[in-house]
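[Automated response] Your request has been received and processed.

Submitted sequence:
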Amino acid sequence: MAFESFVARYPFLFLLGVWILISFLASRLSGWHRLAKEYPVHNPFEGKPRRFQTLWMRYGSHYGNITTVGANAQGLYLSVLFLFRIGHDPLFIPWSEITAAETTGGLFKRIRLQFKRLPAVPVIIDRRLAEILVKESYGVLSIR
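Generated structure:
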């Protein structure tokens, strides 16, 4: 069966395949899959998850309003909405692995989170969210 014939006959399967491929490739490009290997979730997150948050990662990867971010005394929790979950396992990163610093440039103040085991895979969040994380970490997270 020719490709065009397959797409015409099974458009839903084609679109589903494209969706899966894009989600999978985005996890590789952004570095999310590497973070998930280093910092997997072992237990259900205990804390207040904040849904529909935005973050940025390496190579201009942008997760606009599709992430859930949470913090507690032990660490940082990150996950993406179910529709984008392929290749994006939830993360839990202990505070001892995280440094936070204000980034320069742009109109808005953002905070760059770096991870000891994977410094080449940053997570960048807006300052408002970072301030919430500082409070929910009971001050364990501090911003330089």
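Summary generated for your ticket: Residues 30 and 60 are 8 Å apart (CA to CA). The beta strands are 50-56, 62-71, 75-80, 91-94, 98-102, 110-115, 123-126.
If you did not submit this request, please reply to this message.
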